[in-house]
Each structure stands twice: as C-alpha cells, then as structure tokens.
Amino acid sequence: MHSLQGLLAPFSTSRSGTAIRHLSDPGPMTMTSEVPVWVDGVEKWVTGVGRRTTCADLVHALLSAERRQTPSEHEVRAHAIVERWRQVERPLDPAARIQKVWRTWGEDTAEVRFTLKRVGPQTPKEVKAPRRRQRHRWRSSSSLEAVHPRKLGAEPDTVLRGDVVERLMQTILVQGETIAAQLRRLHEREDLIGYYEHKMHRMREDEHGADYLLRTYLRDGEPAEAEKASHDSGVGAELGADAPESPRRDVSEEEAVSDLRQTLMYLERIVELNSRIAEQEEAALRLGHRTRRAAAPTAEPAGELTAARAEVARLAAVCAQQTAEIERNERALTECERLLTERRHRLLQLERELDDADGETSRLLAARLAVAAQPGHQLPPPPAEPRWTSPSLPPPPAHTPAPASATHKDTSGGDGDSNSDTGLSSLHSSSDEAAAGYVLDTLV
Q: Which region ranges are annotated with the description Disordered (predicted)?
C-alpha cells in the first residue's frame, strides 16, 4: 500500500463538516493533491493523493482517521469508495487509482461525489477463506458495477417527455462510464498478468537456469507437463520432479492469475450484456412513445383539419369568383368581336358606295364634257338643290355656290378628290369650263 502524506492529520478535527486542506498544498483539487470524500454526511478533504494512490489506500486512511487506530484488513475490504453522479451510484474498485477516476470527469467534477460506505460483512466470522473472499470481492464489485442505471435511480410514477429524455441521456452516460471503467480495469488486469508472468519467468530462470524452458520441452517421458508448459507459454511449466520444490508463493500467484483471467471473462460478458440491455431499452422507449401517440392523439390534428377545410372553402370561393369573372370577360370579348365585325362590314359597304359614287361622277363628267364640246351648245345651269344618292349619309346643309376663283382646284397633281372626311367628291371642269364661268359640284 502506498504511503499518503498528510492523510491522517487533516481528519483529526474534521467532525465539524468543514473542508480541510493541507497548508502546504494550496493548488487546485482536480490536479494532483486533494480529493473530497463524504463520510457520514460530512465532506472531508484528503491531501497528499498521488498518481499511484488507490481507493483501498483512501479507505484505509479514512478509517484510520475516523477510529483513531489502524483498521484491520477485513474492515478495509468491507468498505468502499462509492462514486455518485446525480441519482446514480457506483462502487469503485479498490485497485482503481482515485486521482485518475477524479480527473476523468473533467468539467463535471462539481456534480460528482465520493462517499465512504460499507459494502461487505461487519465481522470476521462472516468472511470465508482468503482465496474465496478475494474472488467474492471481485465478483461482488463487478456485479454492482453491472447493475443497470434504470434500477439504481428512483423513477417517478408519471414520466413526462423531458424526464424520459433526461433518463435516456443519463443511461447513456452511465453506460459509457461503466464501459470505460471496465476497459480500464481490463487493461489493469492485463498489466498485472503480464507483471506476474514476467516475475514468475524470472524466478524460474533463477531457480532452474536460463534454458529451463528448452529443457522442459526436450525432456522425455513428461508429455503432459510439456503440453501444460506450452499452453501457458512457459509460465506454468514445471518439471514433475521439481513440483514439490516450488515455493508457496508461486502457487498463490498462479491462482491469482487464474482468478484474474476468470474475472476478465466475466467482465467481457458484462460489457456485452450491458450493450444489449441498452439497445433493448432504447427500442422499448421508442415503442412506448409510438404507443402513447397512437392511443392518446392530441387536439392538434383536429385544429389542422379545421384550418385545412377553411382554406379549401376560401380557395373554392376565390376559384368561383375568378371563373365568373372569366365568363364575363369572354362575353365582353364576344360582343366586342361582333361589333368589330359589324364595323368592318359597314366600312366595306361605304367603300363600295364610294366606288359607285366615283364611277357615277366620272360618267357624268364625261357626258358633260362631251356636251360642252359640241359647237353652239350651252350648258344648262346647275340645279338649285343637290342630288343625293346615298341613303346612309345624313343630308348636309344648303350649298351656296362659291366664286370660281375660290372653288377652282388644280387637277394637274391629283385625281379630282378634295374632301376625304365627309365622303364628298368635287370635280372641277377643265380650263375651258373655267373660262366659261361654270362650276360642276357633285355631292355624293
């Protein structure tokens, strides 16, 4: 057991419950020197904790400070350091290094509490043989660490959704920490096995020489012993004649190695079982959520259905309004097309009437010119009232003949039409008719 400097002195007056610190070490507790432990509801600070300080050393120091005397070995084994995080407790292995466990929590050390508790029998009569007691201690610690966090924490009767998530996160964290602790323990056991094997190999080299393993394989008449030696790589190989001469401590070390191997096998099975339990719990939680959602539907679907119906009704009204407006637009467009067709027919009719009037005017002008060309013939005066030939145009106001100088048009650059707005055509006589003083006005 490693020596702890300053372990006993701080606990001599720690009954008041105040934190006690070593005066020579004011540094932070999470680094190297101080670890808080709760004993009977009182927080006490253990100073002088080194890198190799184990939980068994810490228990020994705490019991020595509490009882003012050195505790026996069975009393130390009957107590353990229990690691508490929120609602989860986990007893630590006596061989675990307390400083490494404390440093593993990192920023969550404020939520972690180490407590000294009794986990074994109180009297030596309840303790079995040493070998059996040691194996039972390993098995009990492993079984306690394998308890699922669901059974360690108190569960309320009605669990809300937030509590379920919190419990699931807690389960995951505890499982991860348990697996990490078991892996650390496996590595420690492997290191210990390697140490014992190397130590036994050195001891056999000192007793039988450096070539004892070769002589064991080459010896005739001992196949069983050679097979045994080859099975454990020379660690458990011994000559038949040398067996009675082996020291007692070799037998105890071999038993310890066997126990360690059995413990490793149990730990591997525990890790596998923990992973299976975690998977089954997650599947059960998901199935429970689905069952509750299917059995007790909330009012949200009804509200969503009502809103959807209202939206459909509003869209139907908007669609009907737009359809009516489209129909009105189609009727208006049809009416516009009809009016446009009528206007086009009317325009064609007016164009035909204009062509007929132009032809009639040309015919009358040609006849008048032919009459005027005869010698000694005088043209009759123009009628007082104009002659209307188009029934589609309203009658214009009374026409007053204008002077010849005002009504004469030059026909050299045009075709005879001078008024295109009212549809009237004014064709003037030639230069001979202008000299005679006659003006021909034809109103169409």
A: 123-146, 223-257, 375-444
CA distance 196 to 257: 8
User: Can you tell me whether residue 293 is helix, strand or coil?
Assistant: helix
Has this prediction a pTM greater than 0.90? no
DSSP annotation string for 354-412: HHHHHHHHHHHHHHHHHHHHSTT--PPPPPSSPPP--TTSPPPPPP-PPPHHHH----S
Coil, strand or helix at 164 = helix
- Please compute, for residue 50, the number of CA atoms within 13 A of its CA located in the half-sphere on the CB side: 9
Q: What is the pLDDT of residues 87-128, one digit of tens each?
A: 778 888 888 888 888 888 877 788 888 898 888 654 444 444
Strand partners, 54: 97
Q: What is the DSSP string of 182-231?
A: HHHHHHHHHHHHHHHHHHHHHHHHHHH-TTHHHHHHH-TT-HHHHHHHHH
**Alpha-carbon gap, residue 6 to 46, rounded angstroms:** 8
Please tell me the predicted confidence (pLDDT) of residue 353.
95
- Residue 319 sits at the vertex; the CA angle it makes with 318 and 324, to the nearest 5 degrees, is 100
